[in-house]
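URGENT: need a sanity check before tomorrow's submission.

F., can you look over the Dihydroorotase record below? I want to be sure the sequence and structure line up before it goes out.
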Amino acid sequence: MSLLIKGADLAGAGAGDLLVRDGVIVEAGAVSVPADAEVIDADGLVALPGLVDLHTHLREPGREDAETIASGSAAAAVGGYTAVLAMANTSPVTDTAEAAERVAELGQRAGLVDVQPVGAVTKGLAGEELAELGLMARSRARVRVFSDDGRCVADARVMRRALEYVKAFGGVVSQHSQDPRLAGPDACCHEGELSGRLGLPGWPAVAEESIVARDVMLARHTGSRVHVAHASTAGTVEVLRWAKAQGIAVTAEVTPHHLVLTTDLLAGYDPTFKVNPPLRPAEDVEALREALADGTIDAVATDHAPHARHDKEHAFVDAAFGMLGLETALSVVSDVMVRSGRLDWAGVARVMSVSPARIAGLTGHGRPLAVGEPANLTLVDPDATVTIDRQASHSLSRNNPWHGRTLTGAVHGTVLRGRPTVLKGALA
Ligand SMILES: NC(=O)N[C@@H](CC(=O)O)C(=O)O
Ligand SMILES: [Zn+2]
Ligand SMILES: [Zn+2]
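C-alpha cells as predicted:
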C-alpha cells in the first residue's frame, strides 16, 4: 500500500508529487500513479514537513476532564501536527522515568501524533531539588526537553545545575521566564496603564526580561542550551538578539496568541483572554512578529492550555490561566505572517517544524520533503478562509480565544509516517 500526494507546492519550492511507501518518501518530483496507490489530489495545496509543537499541555494524568492524551492528539493532528511535546505540569508531575514512559505510551496508543514527554526540571515543580533528569533521558521516552513550565526555575543555582546536568546528553531547559518576586502571586494582567484602570494586579515586562537575561548568561557560563518558552515582550527580543549575536546557545518560541492578541482585550474582563505570560501591548506584538521573521525567535509553539469550564468561567481574578492553540496555530501564522509577506511557506516550515524538531532533538520530524525521509507532513490550503468556532473542536475544553474570527489559510491534511491522520480538514 502506497500513498501518492499529487501536485503539492513542496514547502513553497514549486509543484511536485511525493510517493510514500512504508512510511518513507520513496519518490519525489513527477511520479506516475502506481496501481496500488491511495492518491491525495494536492493541487493548490502547500506541503510542509509535519508540524512540531514544542509546548502542549495535555492534562493527562490528573485532569482528564480538561484534556486527555487522546483528545489533545486529535486536536494536534487536525491542527497539522505530527509531533507534540507534552508539558510536565500534570498531576502527578512528569518528574520520573516511569511517568515519562507512561505519557509516551498513551501517545502511541492514541496513534495520531508522536507525543514526546517533557520532563520536569525539579521534583514536583517545586523549584528546589532536581528531578531524575538523567533517568528520564536514558529511559525509553528519551526525554531531552526539561521544563517546570507553569512555574519559573527561579533559583539561579538550581537553574545552573540543571543546565550543567542536561549538557551531558544534549538536553535543553525550557524556561517559563518569570521572576516570581517581581510578578507577585496575584498578577493576572500585563502591568501598565490598562491594569491600573481595570484594577487588576499586573506583571511587569521586566519580570520576564530579567530571567531571560540571567538565563542567557547561565547558558554562556555553562556552555549548555536554554530555551525561552512563550517569549512575550520587546525587551525579551532585545536580550535574545544580543545573546544570539554573542553565539550563546539560546533558542526561543512565541505563541500564536502573543503574535496577535493584545492586552486591551482584557477590557471586558473575559477570562478567555487570561493567560500566562499575559497578553501585551501592540508594540510588543510588533517586536515579536519582527523577531519571528528575522530568526531571533526560532519557533512558534502553541502553549495549548485547555481548562475545564468550572476552572475558567469565573470572575477574571479567579479564573485559570491559559488558552487553546493546537487547532488554530497554522491558520493564525498563515493569516498574520504569510499574508503580510513576513514569512513565506519555507519560513513557516522553519518556525513550525524544522526548528522545533531540532530544538527538541526529534530526528524523525522537521526533515526535508525528499527521498529517504520519513513521510511526516502537513498539507495546507493557503487560500481557504475559516471562521473559528469553539464548539467545533477535538479538545475537551472550550477556552478558545479565536472564536468568531475569520482567518486565511487552513490545514487540509496531515500524514504521520505515511498514514493520513487528517484528510479534508477532518480526522481520517
Ligand atoms: N500558559 C498558561 O496560561 N497556562 C499554562 C501554564 C504555562 O504555560 O505557564 C497551563 O498549564 O495552564
Ligand atoms: Zn509557561
Ligand atoms: Zn505552558
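My own read: The two ends are 16 Å apart (CA to CA). The chain has a mean pLDDT of 97. If you see anything odd, call me.
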